[in-house]
Specification:
This protein has 235 residues and is mainly alpha-helical. The chain has 10 helices and 2 strands, in the order H-H-H-H-H-H-E-E-H-H-H-H.
């Protein structure tokens, strides 16, 4: 019960982030001539169509991961017509890149807001920074609103950086694989497409991608932290 307020903030950010990511995929596909996700209701920031499509990845896993590890993991998806992607590889690349681009946009917005609030003195650099606490209220009397806003913006920044970088790894079933397929349809993209069509290769891709990401994200976090608090040293 002590973690319930943090869970509410985390889950709100998590659901909005997933909805924004998947609706971006769906919208770009729709604009490119594939209405599969559009007719499935995925061109929306309303989380319900995304939950209905992937209840395991949007409800069960996020709840379990938060209360066992203190942070959330999960997934959602937007369907598309693979034959459309084969006929229009550049559009496939744009559709695949739309999700990570959406995450990068949300991360940039959270970063700018945090920098503005730091510049006004509302927030200060924390004594110890982590995924959920990139800033601290300047006053101990700031109240719960400042703490909740600090948590919301910190999670929004780091979660979106995480999802952007992870999804750009060019291994199926991640978005980076779709970008490679679309940009290089007659060379390596054909090999990636073959891998993507095999569930075993997709599972192996996730395992390898996570191992790679485990080395990438700590460095990315350090860079974001240094940009957010220039001149402040953290171990």
């Amino acid at each position: 019960m002590e973690n319930l307020p943090d869970f509410v903030v985390w889950y709100a950010v998590f659901l909005f982030t997933l909805a924004f990511h998947e609706s971006s995929h769906a919208l770009v596909a729709h604009l490119g001539g594939d209405d599969t996700a559009y007719h499935g209701g995925q061109v929306t920031l309303n989380p319900w169509p995304h939950i209905r499509r992937e209840p395991f990845g949007t409800v069960l896993i996020p709840i379990l991961s938060f209360f066992t590890s203190g942070w959330m993991m999960g997934w959602a998806s937007a369907p598309y017509d693979r034959y459309w992607g084969d006929r229009h590889p550049r559009r496939l690349a744009a559709m695949s890149a739309a999700g990570p681009a959406a995450n990068l946009t949300l991360a940039a917005i959270a970063f700018v807001v945090l920098r503005l609030l730091l510049s006004t003195g509302y927030f200060v650099p924390p004594g110890r920074a982590n995924f959920s606490h990139m800033v601290a209220p300047a006053s101990v009397d700031a109240g719960p609103t400042a703490g909740a806003l600090s948590l919301l913006l910190s999670v929004a920044l780091n979660l979106n950086v995480l999802l952007c970088l992870f999804n750009l790894i060019p291994l199926p079933p991640l978005d980076g694989a779709g970008v490679v397929q679309g940009l290089f349809p007659d060379s390596i993209g054909r090999f990636v497409a073959t891998m993507a069509g095999n569930p075993m290769f997709s599972l192996m891709g996730l395992v390898v991608a996570w191992r790679l990401f485990d080395k990438i994200f700590p460095r990315a976090f350090s860079i974001v932290l240094a940009l957010l608090h220039p001149g402040v040293a953290y171990s």
